[in-house]
Amino acid sequence: MARLEQLSYYPELLERVLCLHQQGLGCRAIATQLNTEQWRPAKRRATFNGPMVANLLARQGVCLDASARRQPPWADRQAHEWSIKELSRQLEMPSATVFSWLYKGQLQARQVERGGHHQWLVWADAAELERLRVQRDAPRRWTQHRRVDSNDAANDPVS
Asked: Sign of the CA dihedral 125, 130, 136, 140?
């Protein structure tokens, strides 16, 4: 299978992608335009998508502005509210653990709509952050199981 760099039209493709980017189009819109113009990627797909366009721009040294990829701002965010991702970074722990705590009712949170999706805002002031750090650092309470072998069963007076 061919690589993009091996395509006969690769230089023109890069030029077109850069031109569309300079016109202010985002990666998904550029991909749509390339597909409309019947440009084709080298392999595995019949059409371009946003990440492929981002890769083509990166190959040209175009650093995409992080704010262009960010979600819209929170509409009614209150003081001391964190997204799950922000809180997990603050606590230096996996997002899955923070979500697990939320699911178990260990966090105060509310669900809001943002960018067409429902997302969680977790309330945590300085004292709550400290409580969560203590919870994070607490030893895990796993049930201790003792291995039983055949000699233990033979010597057990109950059997």
From this structure: negative
Residue 90 CB neighbour total at 10 angstroms = 14
Q: What is the pTM of this model?
A: 0.47
Closest CA to 129 of 87, 97, 89, 157: 87
Beta carbons within 10 angstroms of residue 40's beta carbon:
14
Residue 150 CA: distances (Å) to CA of 44, 129, 145: 57, 49, 16
Tokens of 158: 């109950």
Per-residue model confidence (pLDDT) at position 113: 87
CA–CA separation, 77 vs 110, rounded Å? Answer: 10
Contact 18, 57 (CB under 8 A): yes
33's CB contacts (< 8 A; 6+ apart) are 20, 25
Domains of the chain: 4-66 (no CATH), 81-137 (1.10.1660)
